[in-house]
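User: I'm writing a tutorial on reading structure tokens. Could you give me a worked example: one chain, its sequence, then its tokens, then a sentence or two explaining what the tokens reveal?
Assistant: Sure. Here is the example chain.
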Amino acid sequence: MKFWTGVTDNDWFTFLSERGFDEVNFWQPSGLPPFTTLPAGTPFLFKLKRPYNHIAGGGYFATFSKLPLSMAWEAFGQKNGAATYLEVEQRIRRLSSGERSVLEIGCSVLVQPFFFERKDWIPVPNWSPNIVKGQTYDTETTEGAWLWNEVQQHLQDKAIMDLVAEPAVEYGGPRYGEQFLTRSRLGQGAFRVLVSEAYGKRCAITGESTLPVLEAAHIKPYELEGPHKITNGMLLRSDFHKLFDAGLVTVTPELRVRVSERIKEQWYNGKAYYRLHDQPLAVIPKLTSQQPDPEFLRWHLNERFVG
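And here are its predicted structure tokens:
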């Protein structure tokens, strides 16, 4: 098993370790991913900077996305590791080269983070001082096996340990990747980023790619026990998101757009929306496992849409 150990800002770690969030944004000022070959579900350990140089916790990698800072703050808030937007912005500008009017950061979204007490921090084996981002360990090697064994011994939450155990019979398939995203407990921020990535940062209905106006919509609302799952989400332009939540627009299980006549009857308008009536979705996730679940779409059509 391979896992990642990322160089971690000490202030970021301290802030988050005191709050018990269900997800965190491990951001970096560069928009480049820290690694490119490890799948969703990979354990991601926090290696603190000097003077500590110890493993102090970790989480499980869900996805990577390059986002404007404003959107990263909207999605994660204090889960970015600071109390205010201004504090995060100041940190990034100190670390960035040159002036940038629109700050974009690399976001490694981690779910189910865990933080060790100081007495349980683990010394890092054979760590070169030249490593600035992190490195991959493999349990097939002596040092990788030792480090992962130490991490497991310090984990007290059985539910977290289950995420990296051999998959249960009812799941089958691989230990990581899409199976991890299907079975893990995602937070609101991870949901937003994963839906955005699944739709290529384009509106499912219109194909719009202006990122600031795109929003991750739940098909079945979270407050009605609709889960934070990619299959219960679509990326929509903000006006279509509002219409979808209001039941004035829906998407059928056949992935075709339906627009309610109520718009015209009540507001004597809506031409921009009616031209899309009965049209197929403009954007559908490439992976079948990320496409809208027909059962959630059927629920919205029958329970929310005012046709």
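What the tokens reveal: Residues 2-182 form a domain with the Archaeosine Trna-guanine Transglycosylase; Chain: A, domain 4 fold (CATH 2.30.130.30). The chain is about 30% helix and 20% strand.
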